[in-house]
Amino acid sequence: MGRTTQRECGTTGRRGPDKERPAAWSAYGKLVRLFRERAGLTQQALAEAIDYSLEQVASVEQGRRPAKAAFTEAAERVLEAGGALRVLQEDVDRAKLPLFFQDFASLEAEAVSRFSYDPMLVPGLLQTEAYARALLEAHFPPLEEEAIEQHLTARLARQSLLTRKSPCVVFSFILEEGTLYRTVGGRAVLEEQLARLRDCSRMRNVEIQVMPTQRAAHSGVNGQFVLLETVERRQFVSIEAQGVVNIRSDRNEVSEFCLQYGMLRSQALNTEESARFIEHLAGEL
């Protein structure tokens, strides 16, 4: 479409080595230490009380390892933190995401609507754990096992947006037919993934449409994009390719993508046809 790809308001990100410790992990760890010392507990005593190892507690306090939700709930109870740790859990989880994706994830967390076109893969919000893991394990250069687990946990945590009640988020997903044939992780993983799509399509706030391959040319052939509208009614478009995320907020640019998305919805199979197509494909595996 010839659109500019220059940085706008600091929202272009590139994949990096993700070696720096996220500030959210360090802040969380300092709070754990503060509450632990106020409670008169050693690291060993806290570890025993919440059924974690001494090394795990020390790593969390030093910001070297992110706390999982189970750790937070146990620490809240034992340390009587009054919700101070729980309120940071979302930031801790988001910091597990690749650096290039974190700006988008922050905006996504504020969304009241999210419309996306995905030509290559099932989008992260709809992925099963096995499908997501297979993609992360296929990354090159290879990711360390700890990084895979962190990114996987964060990706699955994002899926809570699908069922968030206040405010409820309206979703529209348009998937290229080819994404449903790509055997990421093998046939069993794909079968589970198709079942996941079928289940999500039954949610009242989620619409899934399939773009048939036989429609050789359409308005989305230039690639993936996501349209977001936040609680404050601010609108954004995000384009990701090869680990580079570009987020735009210019009204004219966003409007052009909105028009493009409207055309895509009219060109794809409708939701009922798409559900039948996914069901039929799952039956063939």
From TrEMBL:
GO MF terms held by the record: DNA binding
PROSITE patterns: HTH_CROC1 (PS50943)
Stretches the record annotates as Disordered: 1-21
Ranges of residues in domain HTH cro/C1-type: 32-65
Coiled-coil residue windows: none
Superkingdom: Bacteria
Keywords: DNA-binding
Classification via InterPro entries: Cro/C1-type_HTH, DUF5753, Lambda_DNA-bd_dom_sf
SMART domains per UniProt: HTH_XRE (SM00530)
UniProt protein name: DNA-binding protein
Naturally occurring in which organism (per UniProt): Streptomyces caelestis
